[in-house]
Every structure is written in structure tokens, then in C-alpha cells.
Amino acid sequence: MSKLTLSAAEKIVDTALAKGGELGLKSLTVAVLDAGGHLVALKRQDGSSILRPQVASGKAYGAIAVGAGSRWLDENAKTRPHFVQALNGVAGGAIVPVPGGVLIRAGEGGEILGAVGISGDTSDNDEACAVAGIEAAGFSADRG
User: Fold this and answer.
1) What CA–CA distance (Å, rounded) separates 57 from 59?
2) The organism sits in which domain of life (predicted)?
3) How many folded domains does the chain comprise?
4) Checking phi first, is residue 125 left (phi over 0); if not, alpha (psi -120 to 50) or beta?
5) d(CA 54, CA 134)
């Protein structure tokens, strides 16, 4: 059985930040949460604005909360806005329902080990960096 260790979380974060640099993205903040929604690792690049840690964590938390990457939340915010609004209310406003929150799975369709949330560039670019980090650590990425 795979496990999300601190070492694996650090590899995810460092790879995601390196991918952002490779793509020439704006300053990123990367949060890795375990399956219970607890913060395992967070890095905020120089120049990241002050709410980026909360946004990154909110993307990851939302993914864990619904068991799907935050792209799923984004689609549902468009088609079922009352549901996503109610869900966010129940979560105390902790969910950020836009792409950039990606589940970490133990293999394709496997157990949810946690989630990565990234904030700083476009949601699609944030998501791409999260996927790069998750895959580099040997896990499967679930975008939703």
C-alpha cells in the first residue's frame, strides 16, 4: 500500500515548482494535504501574494472533500451553483472550486492518499504543475 510521506510531499512540491519555472509561470504556492485534509507541506515562492496559501489549500481541501479533483467542483459550480455554495458553507468557506486541486491516488483509480493545491498562475497551469509533481512522486493524479 502506498503512503503519502513528508518526503513524497516534498518531492511533489519541489517538482511542481520546478515545472512552473520551466513553463515560465508566475510565482506559485503549493500545498499538499493528506487524506484527512491536514497540511503535510507548503511552499510559497517569492512574490506570491498573501492569500495564495489559503487558495492553494482550499483547492486541495475541496478535492478531498468531494473525492474528485477540483476541476469537478468547477464544472458543478457552473451547473449546480447552489450545491457548491452549500458545500462551501458546510466547509466553513474552506473550498476553492476551481481547477488546481488534484487528488493524489495510489495508482490509477486507487485509494485517495491526499491532494495537491496550487495557486499563482492560471488554473490550468496550476493544475499541470500539480500533476507533474504527483506523477514524479510515483502516484496517480486525479484532476476530476
Assistant:
1) 5
2) Bacteria
3) 1
4) alpha
5) 20
Per the structure, the complete domain to which residue 16 belongs is given by 6-142
Residue 1 forms part of a structural domain: no
Reported pTM: 0.97
The answer as to whether 118 is a domain residue is: yes
Residue type present at position 140? S
Residue 23 sits in a domain whose CATH number is: 3.30.450.150
pLDDT digits (tens, 9 = 90+) for 23-49: 999 999 999 999 999 999 999 999 999
Report pLDDT digits (tens) over 72-93.
Answer: 999 999 999 999 999 999 999 9
Backbone torsion region of residue 92, taken as left when φ is above 0, otherwise alpha when ψ lies between -120 and 50, otherwise beta? left
